[in-house]
Amino acid sequence: MHDVQIAVQPQPFDQNAVYQWLAAPDSVGAAVVFVGKVRDLNLGDPVSTLYLEHYPAMTEKALKDIVAQAKRRWTIQRVSVIHRVGLLHTGDEIVLVGVSAAHRGDAYHANEFIMDYLKSNAPFWKKERTDKGERWIEQRKSDNDALKKWQQN
Fold first, then answer.
1. Which residues lie below 8 Å from residue 41, measured CB to CB, with a gap of 6+?
2. I need a surface site. Which of 17, 38, 72, 124 has the fewest CB within 10 A?
3. What is the reported pLDDT for 148?
4. Rounded to whole angstroms, how far apart are CA atoms 9 and 66?
5. Model pLDDT for residues 31-75, shown as the tens digit of each residue
6. Residues 126-130: what's their mean pLDDT?
7. Are 9 and 85 in contact (CB under 8 A)?
8. For 67-84, what is the mean pLDDT?
9. Contact present, 47 and 128 (Cβ < 8 Å)
């Protein structure tokens, strides 16, 4: 799939390089890039680090499936999904989802769809360190609720 880039990696990513790749074809009229960061506060507690685990083959398959669903729903040209794993600190970039299309609506909706499904269906396990110790992060109800709008359409 030369129009899809998927990476699960410990190292930081280059937002500008991803944008340049997404926007390269002359037929692209819109490129939407979402970047998520590690917050310094979660569930009312200060967070110092976040550790992400995954099973490589399972995670990459899940990400490919999510992108394939988006490609069936919208007319999109290129997609990039990069998710970091390992030890991250507050302020670090953790995820990038980028989509390009001829029209902004397709790029916006596909980007949001991919991010919503990634948050709920991609197999990542997160452990954060707070001033009260370490804890595994449970999936949020709001993440599952975000999927409902896509399942109704």
1. 47
2. 72
3. 78
4. 18
5. 999 999 999 998 888 999 999 999 989 999 999 999 999 999 999
6. 93
7. yes
8. 97
9. yes
Predicted pLDDT of residue 127 = 94
What is the bridge-based pairing of β-strands 86-89 and 78-84?
unpaired
Q: DSSP labels for 11-65? A: S---HHHHHHHHH-STT--EEEEEEEE--SEETTEEEEEEEEEE-HHHHHHHHHH
Structure tokens at 151: 């399942």
β-bridge mates for residue 33, sequence order: 98
Contact 109, 150 (CB under 8 A): no
**Contact residues for 63 (Cβ-Cβ < 8 A; gap 6+):** 6, 8, 81, 83, 118, 122
Region 122-133: mean pLDDT is 92
Single-letter residue type at 9: Q
